[in-house]
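Catalogue entry: protein

Sequence with per-residue tokens
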Amino acid sequence: MLQSAHIDDWNVFYEKSTHSPFFLSPKWALLWENIYPIYRASPMMITLPSQKRALIPCVSQSCFFGSTHMLHSSPAGTYGGWLTEDGSILDTEETAFLLKTLFEASETLVLRLSPFLILEQKNDSGPFTNVSGAGISCIPDQTYILDTRIGLEALEKRWKKKLGRKLKKAETSGVCIHRTDQNTDIERFYTLYKSCIETWNPPPGHIYPPEFIATLLKDTGSADLWIAEYENKVIAGAIVARGINHWAYWLGATDRNYSHLRAANLLHTQIIITQCNEGVQWYDFNPSAGLKGVEQFKASFGATKKAAPLFIKKRPFFHFLEKSSTLVKRFTSSILPT
């Protein structure tokens, strides 16, 4: 049975996990709710035939002036999935039951599966590849994840071989890396981020306002801003979301005018070194929008490819509203003066 859950339950389930991305936490959902009025934290609880309970982190989005809604697990294409009451792993049958129940009960749902839920199945992809039904589509995707249990010494040996010249270039050029929470640094990073997204191809699916970035960094206690400076100018930056035994490279920006300094390479090695020293196992570079150059960059640190498929279910009425909205926009733009 699937039913609504309370935020307090969400907190308890999340804290019981041994490894969970920040995006499965209630803080991430409440951030969206606080910044965007059309979003509401809407966790769901399911009781499995084994009587084990699992909580599904969700955010509900009001669409088309409130005429319908879309359920996200989790918003903006970040990792979704489930959390168990005792932090245990669901077996293949439990996973299949959960997914079947969730999709049957949801009229409109966007779910990007956390790669760790797939890893838990020990490469048995059956429960995930068998997700099907009316209106359900699956977009294959992948992330790059670095398991730091091999140790910092082994990682540095790899970097010396794969990234040695690039790291030396950044260091000898005077590039400096900082973890910072200063308002001025947040503003400087945001300026760089806004200038970068104008050149991104494909363009980003979502552009975050400054208050979203500032609230994430200053109020959640679960994200850090790292910047690379050269001659007092921010030339690269990364926001890292800290989950349970998991750090994720969530948002980044690099000034292409300074790409020859290899600041991004030095930036990520410093983040990973800090993560290792703090005893965190996973560094997750997140999906790459299919960009081969970005994937090669992430793989150069020793990260390996892991599946992170995106499932989308939309009922016919939602498709109708989408098409109608598109037609209205086209008509409006054709009659309004430019």
Notes: The chain has two domains: 2-141+308-335, 145-307. The radius of gyration is 21 Å.
